[in-house]
Amino acid sequence: MELIRTVKPLFTVLQQCAALRCLQLRHCSNAANRNVSSRQSRTRVDRFKIQLSSGPSLQDFIRGVPVDGSHAADGDASDTQEYLEYLCEDMDLGNSRKVCFETYGCQMNVNDTEIAWSILQRKGYLRTVDINEADVVLLVTCSIREKAEQTIWNRLQQLTAMKRKRLKTHTPMKIGILGCMAERLKTELLEQEKLVDVLAGPDAYRDLPRLLTLADGGHQASNVLLSLEETYADIMPVHHSPQGYSAFVSIMRGCDNMCSYCIVPFTRGRERSRPVSSILEEVRLLSDQGVKEVTLLGQNVNSYRDTSEEQFCGTELTQLSRGFKTIYRTKQGGLRFSDLLDRVSRINPDMRIRFTSPHPKDFPDEVLQLIAERANICNQIHLPAQSGSNQVLNAMRRGYTRDAYLDLVKNIRKIIPEVSLSSDFISGFCGETEEDHQQTLSLIREVGYNVGFLFAYSMRKKTHAYHRLQDDVPAELKRQRLEECISVFREEAAKVNAALIGSTQLVLVEGESKRSFQDLCGRTDGNMRVIFPKENAESNMALISAGDYVLVKILSANSQSLRGRVLSHSSLRGRVKH
């Protein structure tokens, strides 16, 4: 019994340390602010070492030799708590190790990178863009299509070869997979291929310091649990945009739509919205830093519904676009997307506001009217159609028909006459016939989009289509149909853009054109790329820099960009929407 009483405080230390670790993960933003001087740290460690050295040894357990329990029993409880807190705080520190991020996929992954970096930066990690000097390489991944995943597999092979070479001369390099691919392929990544040291799903970034500490000890570490609550509302992302004038702000995570082809609900979980107060705080901070364009992000961004405060939780039912439906029960209460958009747009009238990626079902008139009224909310709407065939739309579980979609397009153009539309289309979905494909081509022609994102269908495990449908369109036919869709899309986009020749567009300057150092480039309110000569700009006015607003006369156009000449500097404040 004496032996048990002696070692009991040590077990208590470990239990309390585990509890403190959980508390620390919940409140990492507060814990990161605590600082302990090096002298105090050494003192606490010395005390702990003394208590360990004077406690029972392994031989005591084996021989059953009585031990004097006075060392532990008489110790100062405050001393125990001090070294306990010190150990729990320091066990996950980065100690100036360098981490390199590689980001693949959508804008949400860019934002996830900024969140993960914010968490690691607080723990003492340094960031590098040079992979050769990195101690940790983290790939922020995408699982939306097979090609995206294959890109990651190829990159992992390259990094593993680099890691083997590093073992001979440097500190071993750790490789981590973050995001959707970590959740979807955890077994293959850890157990079968054994190419990574750390896996962290989209809702587990707070756990990264602990996971990396375990990896340093020679263990594979993973956390891919999905959350019903995690929004990282208390984590202020470290924005690392090379331009500096634009930023992404995540407002919600996950998706409840359960489209039959989509893996997102299974890799990012159910919908949950970030509290409006946290979003407004981040946007104000970005405005103070001189950011000129903010894009609000979410897997279904316009289904935003903040229920974090009791005053928001009324009984009003969510209003959908006319003719649209969902597979889930109508939600009620909460601060809606139109409310958030209203508040965000008021922060800085000279800062553009965009949002992506929306679902067509969540465009009630109040959202459209707000876009039409506010000069700083861009006249650009992404309206993913996916197909022009009712049969395919039904198989996709999109919740609308072709006619309902076209009615929405008409309503949008009625309320926002100068709107620019973009869309997503999938070629070769399960059961798609030639007639279905022709209906998609006719929809593209009828709507007339400025920008499009078109892909061949790639079946994903876990999805409704994987379990219930047959991927029966041959790969070569998918490719052929995709090429036809792209061709028609470009033809129509060229016509839409040609209509802008002779107009004057307000352009937010991004910097030098990638194709010519003699040109500058930027984007219109409708998200169209505009290229204009640098010489013409500099001869007529003060130097133009990235982040400036300028008026550009459009002189020519093609399906992908506009060309023009600068008329003058400008701003959003003097702009009037018609």
Automatic annotation (TrEMBL):
User: Which NCBIfam families does the protein's record reference?
Assistant: miaB-methiolase, MiaB/RimO family radical SAM methylthiotransferase
Q: Which GO terms describe its biological process?
A: regulation of protein metabolic process
Report the SUPFAM superfamilies cross-referenced here.
Radical SAM enzymes
What is the name of the protein in this document?
Mitochondrial tRNA methylthiotransferase CDK5RAP1
Q: Give the PANTHER family listed for this entry.
A: CDK5 REGULATORY SUBUNIT-ASSOCIATED PROTEIN 1, MITOCHONDRIAL TRNA METHYLTHIOTRANSFERASE CDK5RAP1
Q: Which organism is it from?
A: Echeneis naucrates (Live sharksucker)
What cofactors does this protein use? Answer: [4Fe-4S] cluster
Encoding gene per record: cdk5rap1
Query: Has UniProt tagged this entry with the keyword Isomerase?
Result: no
Radical SAM core domain residues:
241-495
What are the record keywords, sorted?
A: 4Fe-4S, Iron, Iron-sulfur, Metal-binding, S-adenosyl-L-methionine
- Please name the PROSITE patterns in this protein's record: MTTASE_N (PS51449), MTTASE_RADICAL (PS01278), RADICAL_SAM (PS51918), TRAM (PS50926)
